[in-house]
Predict the 3D structure of the following.
Amino acid sequence: MTIQTETKKDKAGNEVVVFKLIGDLDAFSSRDFKPLVIDFAEKGHSRYIVDLSETPFIDSSGLVSLISLLKRAKVMGGYVKLVGLRRPMRDIFSITGLDKVFEFYDTVEDALNSV
């Protein structure tokens, strides 16, 4: 998996870290994602958008990575917004009940403007 990162401003002017994940988010790739998340959190970031539009598959390890990110963000008064989920992955979030804890948007701009 490739992870691209950039920072943008949300509608309220807050700095937001945008992670674009390209490839599967699974047990193997989660090992790369987790340290990156910790690094941003340690630098004081608490607002995140995760673009999953080019992520065709997610397993339980990938879900745990996203839940960990959400927990870190909430503790720091921030948020995690998920973008671009394909239908099969959206179903996984629904089946696991995670559709009730994450916010979903079609585009990064939609997520940035939702604040």
